[in-house]
Amino acid sequence: MIFKKAIQKELIKKDPTLFVVLQKKKKTIEELKKDDIPKYMEKEELALFLKTVALTKA
Fold it and tell me: What's the domain of life for this entry (predicted)?
């Protein structure tokens, strides 16, 4: 948005970020295994899960 405003005010002629692509670092399998994944549900999540299961059984 800053560069668009600068172009509008004719401070610059073109947006230098126009064709920039940010790359994400891909995780390896080992890194994915190390990630902490909670092995429990919060009370509200459990209630929603049980309600959903009950609705799909009916």
Answer: Bacteria
Domain contains 46: yes
9-40: per-residue pLDDT in tens? 999 999 999 999 999 888 888 887 777 766 78
CB 3 within 8 A of CB 12: yes
The verdict on residue 28 lying in a domain is no
pLDDT at 58 over 70: no
**Domain membership flag for residue 27:** no
b/e burial code for range 23-38 (CB count within 10 A of at least 16 → b): eeeeeeeeeeeeeeee
Domains of the chain: total: 1
Tell me the residue type at 51: K
What's 24's DSSP letter? P
Find tokens 């005010």 and name the residue: 9
